[in-house]
Amino acid sequence: MWITQLFDYWSRQMFAPGTALRKKYQYFRDLLALDRFCLEKMAEIEEIHYRGIPCDYARVVRLCRELDHAAGNLAKSLIALNPLQYRELKAHYRRISAEINEIIEFEDPETAPPFSIDLKRAATRDPDRMPDTTLVGGKARNLAFIQSRDFPVPEGFCVTTRAFNAVLSANNLRPRINDILSRICLDSTESIEEKCRDIRRMLLEAVIPDDIRKELEARLEGFSGKKLAVRSSAVGEDGELSFAGQYKSLLHVDPEDFFDAYRQILAGKYTPRATAYRIQAGLPDELIPMAVLALEMIDGRESGVVYSSGIGNPEETGIYVVSGTGERLVGGEVKAKEYFIGKTEDAEFPADSPVVYENPSPPCP
Question: Could you give the CA distance from residue 194 to residue 197 in angstroms, rounded to a whole number?
Fold first, then answer.
């Protein structure tokens, strides 16, 4: 290729020197503009790195790709100005470009079955046979774990992260989502709210692929005449990063309305609060796919939240209880009854305390 460019270069020099001069001038102008553009992108990337500016990983990827594209055009301009002197430049650029793309790109996500998993069948005392968190998310895996220890867990199933990936793929949403995420500014409340709203709208309008729909319809047949609790179970949720109260849960869902509820839970992954929390934790969106739990709805007499490390005293376990379902507690609508137990003490509950389920198996860690 460089021989062709060299021949074209010397032909213009010999037979059309005026044209060659004008083209050389244009290449030189392009070179200056591209050099300035590359320096600006490098400065943005360095500012994110050295100043610790909170932004979505998608922004870093976009800046790297813009820099890569501009550097390729800059190399072309240099080669056009002097093909002989810069003939090796294209090979060097291609090598560097390939290395950059290998670093910033993710592997294609899994979009093949299973699209759903029965919680009861997933429950096993063998940790090596438990469903992986990357497949069912933190909440579903924890429920399967405690069910394997003979704690009572409502009947249900988990729609896997592979179904989420397949929905994004079928609707070509990943590049559109990343483009929006790359332009979010955490310093602007209006910016993040507007952009998260755009992403949620895309997911609420997404088409569920037929193979996923058929598999879930077969699951839902077992819940005819019952109500469902449809809940988030994202990768990373209820783990080292809790995402507590940031994703969506829907209660008393009719099975025939499940697919609308499913879309709402997926869309709930992109609330401003959850998105900002993930960005500040430094997690790329691709690493936090959403699984969804569908559980038989239980109208609990009492519900609550347990903090293994108390808010006021880390040596205490805090238990917060309300009557009925726990959504009013999580939503801050009612004040809970509070119980604090020292971690090294035997639990002694007052007379008005909730019934504690006594289980012979060892508690989950």
Answer: 5
